[in-house]
Amino acid sequence: MPQYNPPLRDMQFVMHEVFKVTDEFKAIPKHADIDRETIDAVLEEGGKFAAEVTFPLNISGDEEGCTLDRKTHEVTAPKGFKQAYAQYVEGGWPALSCDPEYGGQGLPFVVNQCFYEMLNSANQAWTMYPGLSHGAYEALHAHGTEAQKKLYLPKLVSGEWTGTMCLTEPHCGTDLGLLRTKAEPQPDGSYKLTGNKIFISAGEHDMTSNIVHLVLARLPDAPQGSKGISLFLVPKFNVAEDGSLGTRNGIYCGGLEHKMGIHGNATAQIVLDGASGTLVGAPNKGLAAMFVMMNAARLGVGNQSLGLTEVAYQNALAYAKDRLQMRSLSGVKAKDKPADPIIVHPDVRKMLLTAKAYAEGGRALAIYCTLLLDKELHHPDEKVRKDSGEVVALLTPIVKAFLTDNGHIATNACMQVFGGHGFIKEWGMEQFVRDNRINMIYEGTNTIQSLDLLGRKILGNNGATLKKFGKLIAALIAEEGVNEKMAEFINPLAYLADQMTKFTTELGFKGFQNPDEVGAAAVDYMRVAGHLVFAYFWARMAQVALQQIAAGNTDRFYVAKLQTARFYFAKLLPETATLMRTARSGARSLMETEEALA
């Protein structure tokens, strides 16, 4: 059976020693009184909930899956899921970072980020039920009418109800301009929606009394394409003005998808048969409102893979220390045993350190992004809000794509550490691989994220936002450039930053002449950009570790951090050289292939 220990020490290191989040919060009136002790206490309890309540349900939930009653269209979640959710609500966990006006606790997003990382490590399928509610909450909080907010937000904040987003249709995925679901205006100002949606995570279940669906649909006179999409709030049960539940609405589950992973989550086929809904935001402006939820979901998906990377690493490390196999190439290490533990072998260490470096680098990036979100939404300085929003928009596709790609690499590497036992269900490793695989696909495939990063977020404004992040790198280089102890981290970072400028400019010129050049290079470019961001954060973490060691701190944590940083710069960062070469090879070898693909 697998195990899980919340990585509280590393979270505390990133928050308090690298980013000094409580100092940042002092400039934000809403969070000025938040101290380290409060954050640490909340996360310690959150870690207990993840490890003791949801983690024990991970394997059983995967084996049992969800059950659909085709007569009633009701879905039953796996055994124990409903009870765990009740404990989650009772503990006040849904309200952590929500607005106090609607019953939230008003804590910084950083706290929610770390809590959800632990939930994702413990049980990704279970975590998706409450996880999607946060996106629905954010979309309604930003674009809902006062009546919608008053009626629905307190229920979402408390966790009494959950939320979903209904985008995908059988004939279209990411290209939402093709969707066909219709919304007909009614005399009372409501709308009747008709259509079909698929792949709706947590789309139907028995864990709450109501489900709030946010549905994209077209009005009768809507323009063609994405400019004619509106957003509607469609509850499972109609809601009276006093908040009580009324009749069953015309939205129901027509089937459950049979999937590779996340079996414990109900991925529903949703049928809208004259369902009653209300408009969210302006007519034909639905994508703007839905993008609030979609961007939150993309950050959340990156967090899912971060959680799986961490738990896979923990189990592979424990196994490698215990499993005996062969003798070390450099001589016997365990003289009292018939063979050495496999952790003595270089390639086993490479697999373990790959997962560790991707987990700890991903944690730094994820926490940094949520710190930016706190600044974007609540900082009193307009320029700080604007700059924070631009940088988090730049980093969002990297969080979604780079962290999920890395999760694929890491969970597979950790399964490999187990050898044949990793392929066997009882060890839990193959489930981490299967569950992670969807993270590279949904909320916009990683190729879509790569196109968004290169085409829209970077070339779309001539690299202006990339230059803002570049200033952070330049400041660190200026600060540590003459420090010999930092040279092994600063020099490769400075080199890659310089190469990135030339690389981006070159792709921009080629893309201007032929847009397919951007499409051919985008995925490789994404990983280069991801490594640039990781190299910056790993250099900052190494900087703090060196300072602590120089100050006489004997905590071995800092030695371990330096060793992991050295591994990252020596063994993982050099991937960028190959990626830039393949990106520069252009589109011709891909597009002039009619005979090869005939």
What is the string of helix and strand elements? Answer: HHHHEEHHHEEEEEEEEEHHHHHHHHHHH
Helix content estimate: 55-70%
What ranges have pLDDT less than 50 throughout 5 or more consecutive residues? none
* Biggest sheet layout: 7 strands, mixed
Structural class: alpha+beta
Give the amount of beta strand, in percent.
5-15%
Give the overall silhouette.
globular
Question: Count the helices. How many?
Answer: 18
The assembly state of the depicted protein chains is: single chain
Instruction: Write down how many β-strands occur, each being a DSSP E stretch of 2 or more residues.
Output: 11
Give the overall average pLDDT: 96
Spatial separation of the terminal alpha carbons: 48 Å
Radius of gyration in whole Å, from Cα?
A: 24 Å
Description of the molecule:
The chain is globular, with a radius of gyration of 24 Å. The protein has 18 helices and eleven strands. It has helices at about 10-20, 20-25, 35-55, 60-65, 80-90, 110-145, 145-160, 285-320, 345-380, 380-415, 430-435, 445-460, 465-480, 485-515, 515-550, 555-570, 575-585, 590; strands at about 65-70, 75, 160-165, 180-185, 190-200, 210-215, 230-235, 235-240, 245-250, 250-255, 265-280. Helix 6 packs across helix 9 (about 345-380). It is an alpha+beta fold.
